[in-house]
Amino acid sequence: HEVENGLRQAIEKGELALHFQPIFDLATGNIVTCEALMRWEHPRLGRVPPSEFIPAAERIGIIEQLSIWALREACTAAAEWPSDVRVAVNISPASLTSGELPRTVIATLLETGLPARRLELEVTESLFLEDNRHTSQMLRELQLIGLKLVLDDFGTGYSSLSYLRSYSFDTIKVDQSFMAAIGNSREDQAIIQAVSHIAKTLDMETVAEGIETEDQLRHAREAGFNSGQGFLLCPPQPRDRMSEVLAAGT
Ligand code: G
Ligand code: G
Ligand code: MN
Ligand code: NA
């Protein structure tokens, strides 16, 4: 309960922060996107991981407020970066159900001055609602604004392939569990190659996440992934370090 009660006030008390993790083009080595990752420093409990407080926010019905906060913070930060890399914001599927998201996004882009083409929204596949007309219509509205939609944690949901058919995502981010043991798993190697092939055929980009070793990086490259993210390439960075990270180029 301390988590749930504390979370209700976390925004006002300024306890939430965004960190950013660069995503690199595997062909050029350039940063193409930075993913915003929420951090919460509770005064007594210390750092509470998102895997704990995001589900808590969903339970107590404030996930939409958290998403709006993250969206505004991320767009504000990105508008000040010294290059035109994109910023990716995680959107909990629970925030898709009210139908307000497109309007909120438009208002936030106007307010922060960030061009729509510099925003990506990541939607976690494993929590996706079943084939839902409202959801697919809203996702299309979001794309019409000019931003990109990323299907996050791909391969962990109940019907991964049918999401590709029902919704028009721009990018597939393959779940890091497929990269974890890639070096000695013929199965995982076959899966990431197949996903890469499907994505190319459907005109989608691919991101490999959870790249921690040179070997994993090589497998992602050889499978033809467009970009990669992971501790090997760059861990999540506090917001005030991003200008430096981006100025360093790569
Ligand atoms: O950064 P970390 O590995 O601790 O993040 C754990 C999980 O929390 C990830 O699945 C990530 O998608 C999720 N997460 C991080 N920040 C946000 C956020 O701002 N909104 C939502 N909905 N999820 C987030
Ligand atoms: O939104 P998503 O679930 O994809 O969030 C990515 C999460 O993965 C973040 O919590 C981030 O801190 C974490 N992460 C980033 N790079 C790595 C990595 O190389 N290995 C592992 N295990 N986790 C990572
Ligand atoms: Mn993500
Ligand atoms: Na993910």
TrEMBL record:
GO MF, one term, reads: catalytic activity
Q: Does the keyword Endoplasmic reticulum apply?
A: no
Report the protein name in the record: EAL domain-containing protein
The residues forming the signal peptide are none
Record's keyword annotation contains Transmembrane: yes
Q: List the range of the whole protein covered here.
A: 404 to 653 of 671
What top-level branch of life does the organism fall under?
Bacteria
Residues in domain EAL? 1-250
Q: Which UniProt keywords apply?
A: Membrane, Transmembrane, Transmembrane helix
